[in-house]
Amino acid sequence: MIEEEVLSLIKPTKEDEERINNIINMISERLRGLDFEVQGSFRKGTWLKQDTDIDIFIFYPKEVGKEYLEKNALKEIIERVKDLNYILAYAEHPYVIVYVNNMEIDLVPALRVESGDKAITAVDRTPFHTKFVTSHLDEKGRDEVRLLKRFMKGIGVYGAEIKVQGFSGYAAELLVIYYESFRKVLEGASKWRPQIRLELIKSQKKFTEPLVIPDPVDPNRNVTAAVSLKNMAIFSLAAKYYLKNPSIEFFFPNRNIIYTKIKGDVLIAKIRIHERTTEDIIWGQIKRSITRIRNALSQQGFKVIDIQAWGDSEEITIAVQLESKNIGRYYLNKGPPYYSINVDDFIEKNENIWIGEDGRLYSIKERKEYNAENIVKNNIILKPKYSIETYWLEKEEEDPQLMRFLRKTPSWLK
Question: What is the pTM of this model?
Answer without folding.
Answer: 0.90
